[in-house]
Amino acid sequence: MTVLARTSTDLTTKLALSSPASTEAETTAARPVIEIRSLSKVYDPKSGPVLDDISLSVASGSIHGIIGRSGAGKSTLVRCLNGLVSPSSGRIFVSGHEISALKGLQLRKARQNIAMIFQHFSLLSSRTAAANVALPLEIAGVAKETIRQKVPALLDLVGLSDKAESYPSELSGGQKQRIGIARALALDPSVLLSDEATSALDPETTEQILDLLKDINRRIGLTIVLITHEMDVVRQIADHVTVLERGRIIESGATFDVFAFPKSPTARSFLSSIVAHDLPPEVSALLLPAATGNTDPVLRITFTGASAHQPVVADLVQRFHIRPNILHGRIDYIGGAPLGVLTLVAEGAGSGFESVLSYLSSLGLHGEVIGHAVRSAIPGAHRAAS
Ligand SMILES: Nc1ncnc2c1ncn2[C@@H]1O[C@H](COP(=O)(O)OP(=O)(O)OP(=O)(O)O)[C@@H](O)[C@H]1O
Ligand SMILES: [Mg+2]
């Protein structure tokens, strides 16, 4: 019989030992806490698999975003992670326990290590905030004295000590979600699954909840799997991201890399609100796939890290006598690191365009010709220099 050893130190001890500067996350980052191997889920054989051969590891202390269109299988994936849904095939390990192979009491015990928060906070309206937080401890049979000590520490962690005796109807959406987070952390989980936990909140409250999650992640090394359709949430706090499409992983990697160089049209379209990879349709419709005597190349330059601050447009003018017409551009910050995408018509580039691309590459920039524009065909293009 498998013995379910608790891997996490008691939350109160962790908090007492931690400070925002000391990160357990940093020291244990390489160890996977979640391992999914060839996971498939079929609900109805007529409609095909909802999850199709998913393999993924999540490092301990990581914040891992999962994005995808509605119906892509995101919620099914997290339900498989906490054993609420049984896979049709494949294996799932969380903190060394094979969730997909456990049943009954063993599964219930293993689940205590995997907490979950939802879009609709599902607090009990008849219980105060403190009593809602105490509920999982009561169900797990924790001693009354321990509960009495632990609940105030949890309320303090989420900044709601003063709302202990309030009922859910007396709390704002953001406060309800904080109580949901405190309740989720009551049994000292190593993993927190968040299924659209900020989707019902306004942008300012979303930001506060994300700050709280990031703070908890840093202070106690909690691994967070974050399902969201809000790219800004991923941009702000996820270190890794996986893109799901029709039950399959189509991209997965460090958030910055996926945001800077998305490979799939789905990821590009998700990112369009954050990174200017794609041109507005009015402009892209005017691009030709091949050069003619009457066209200029359209160049997309991706700036990352330190290269984001290079005076590239001036260099193109001076070195290559190009007259850049800027079509589209934006610089943003992904996890604090700059990422810029600039698309321009390289007027007067002539035939030696390979040397322009090599020059960009020597600066650590990624240059790509994405089409060809007929001279004077693109309205609104802005001449940057001449
Ligand atoms: N219990 C179930 N029985 C049968 N089909 C289901 C069940 N749960 C989900 N599905 C189907 O599985 C597919 C994936 O659903 P899932 O809820 O995982 O998607 P999602 O990516 O979370 O979508 P959303 O962004 O809308 O929440 C959908 O086609 C859905 O109809
Ligand atoms: Mg869902």
Approximate shape:
elongated
Helix and strand content put the structural class at alpha+beta
Number of helices: 14
- Ligand types: adenosine-5'-triphosphate, magnesium ion
Could you name the ranges where pLDDT drops below 50 across 5 or more consecutive residues? 1-9, 17-29
Full CATH superfamily name of the largest domain? P-loop containing nucleotide triphosphate hydrolases
Strand order of the largest sheet: 6-7-8-3-9-10
Proportion in helices:
25-40%
The average pLDDT score comes to 86
Q: Which fold does the CATH topology of the largest domain refer to? A: Rossmann fold
Total number of domains: 2
Q: Please give the alpha-carbon distance between the first and last residues.
A: 76 Å
**Would you report the number of β strands?**
16
Please describe what this structure looks like.
- The strands form 3 sheets. The chain has a 6-stranded mixed sheet, sandwiched between helices.
- The longest helix has 18 residues.
- Helices cover 33% and strands 28% of the residues.
- Helix 5 packs parallel to helix 7, helix 6 packs across helix 7 and helix 7 packs parallel to helix 8.
- It has 14 helices and 16 strands.
- The chain has 2 domains: 188 residues, Rossmann fold; 103 residues, ACT domain (Alpha-Beta Plaits), CATH 3.30.70.
- A hairpin with a 2-residue loop joins strand 9 and strand 10.
